[in-house]
Design goal:
Layout (H helix, E strand, L loop, with lengths): L1 E10 L4 E3 L1 E6 L2 E7 L10 E11 L1 E6 L1 E2 L2 E2 L5 H12 L3 E8 L4 H14 L8 E8 L21 H10 L4 E6 L6 H10 L3 E4 L6 H10 L3 E2 L15 H8 L5 E4 L7 H15 E4 L11 E5 L2 E6 L2 E4 L3 E2 L6 H12 L3 H6 L3 H7 L16 E4 L5 E6 L2 E2 L4
Parallel strand pairs: 1-5, 6-9, 9-10, 10-11, 11-12, 12-13, 14-15
Antiparallel strand pairs: 1-2, 1-3, 3-4, 5-20, 7-8, 16-17, 17-18, 18-19, 20-21, 21-22
Helix pairs in contact: 2-3, 5-6
Length: about 375
């Protein structure tokens, strides 16, 4: 099937195409030209006057949504999550686990592995992000303390085998005994390593980077606080030009003023927007599950215990709009933090994060202020929000 898309503009990795004419054939982008360069071709056409075409968003840190948790590892759960995400402009995501008993984690990883590559509804899981169990007791956040594990290459290998090689990202606290060896093992298998849930000092954080870590997990949250005489892991994350860094831009996890500071330090090439969303996302207030944790949600805020944040109810399109609002950047720049940068960090930038001829037609159609008008995945028009 062949059709044409038109809009006000289209964002490529290095330029903005005014009045684009995009030809899609059998789910693939075959041509992108400007109306100033060529006349409109014949054939079926979908016009989006005033709209902006961007690559479908890519969320590398999401636990669930619409009442389903990815650790259910069922086709039904991932279809629910994928359908919800596609309505919010997301085309790809990493199914993110949370610390749980080892057997439960291995079962989830095995189930998720069987679903990778299947023809699921909506956004596609293109890998697994394991967040825990190799994290700090003092910076565990909502992760259950009794299930935290000391970093161990044999245990990592069990998880890798259960996931059938689909682990693409791992969060780890670099200060823990055995962490450097696990980082080196993961990197040797092509896994990207992110430093997080960590009480590391500067030296331990640098050791983690030298071992191969390339990113930081939800910067500021579950991290040792910055001190001007002892910068710690947060000082390293903000100082290093070669380190990617995630941020949850919901206005709850990080104050807008701190988001602006983060932007000044990490910039357009290293900042990554994530949601850390859980099953309560898109649902009314109430009680929900995050892995095996019981989480209560009130006014959209996810809490365990007295006041510990447990993920979020943020959607990535909202996060992009928030980032633009908080920092004053244009929508093109904000969108790149949810498209190009996560793709570069994960090594998937040859497949995800850009609109170019020869690539799969995963396209999000935005209004000028960043609202999702429609999402097109694999060339198919999805149901919009």
């Amino acid at each position: 099937m062949r059709y044409i898309l038109t809009a006000e503009k289209l964002l490529t990795p290095d330029q903005t195409v005014p009045h684009p004419i995009v030809t899609v054939e059998d789910g693939t982008i075959t041509s992108i030209v400007s109306l100033a360069e060529a006349p409109l071709p014949e054939g079926p056409r979908h016009d989006f006057p005033g709209a902006v075409l961007v690559p479908a968003y890519f969320d590398v840190h999401i636990h669930g949504s619409a009442g389903s948790d990815v650790m259910e590892a069922s086709e039904g759960a991932l279809n629910t999550v994928g359908s919800f995400l596609s309505a919010h402009g997301v085309g790809s995501y990493f199914a993110t686990t949370v610390t749980a008993p080892v057997d439960a984690t291995l079962k989830s990883l095995h189930g998720l592995a069987k679903l990778m590559g299947k023809d699921l509804k909506g956004a596609r899981p293109v890998g697994i992000h394991i967040e825990g169990p190799f994290i700090s007791h003092s910076k565990k956040g909502a992760h259950p303390e009794q299930d935290l594990q000391q970093p161990s290459v044999p245990l990592f290998d069990r998880m890798w085998e259960a996931a059938e090689g689909h682990i693409r990202l791992m969060t780890i606290a670099p200060e823990l005994p055995g962490a450097i060896e696990v980082i080196e093992r993961a990197v040797s298998l092509g896994v990207r390593v992110s430093l997080g849930h960590s009480n590391a000092g500067m030296d331990d954080a640098l050791r983690g980077i030298h071992a191969g870590a390339t990113s930081a997990t939800h910067t500021f949250n579950a991290m040792r606080r910055f001190d001007h005489r002892d910068p710690g892991i947060l000082g390293v994350v903000l100082d290093r030009d070669d380190l990617f860094a995630e941020i949850i831009c919901d206005g709850l996890h990080v104050h807008p003023a701190v988001v602006r500071m983060f932007w000044k330090e990490k910039g357009a090439d290293r900042a990554i927007l994530i949601t850390d969303a859980m099953s309560a996302t898109g649902m009314p207030d109430g009680s929900y599950k995050l892995g095996e944790l019981d989480v209560r949600v009130k006014n959209g805020k996810c809490i365990v215990g007295e006041d510990t944040l447990a993920g979020s109810t943020l959607t990535l399109d909202r996060g992009v709009r928030n980032f633009a609002e908080f920092t004053g950047v244009d929508m093109a720049t904000a969108a790149s933090l949810a498209t190009r940068n996560p793709a570069r960090m994960t090594g998937l930038d040859s497949q995800i994060g850009a609109l170019q001829p020869g690539r799969t037609a995963d396209i999000t159609v935005l209004s000028p202020n960043g609202e999702v008008i429609e999402t097109i995945l694999r060339g198919q028009r999805m149901v919009s929000c």
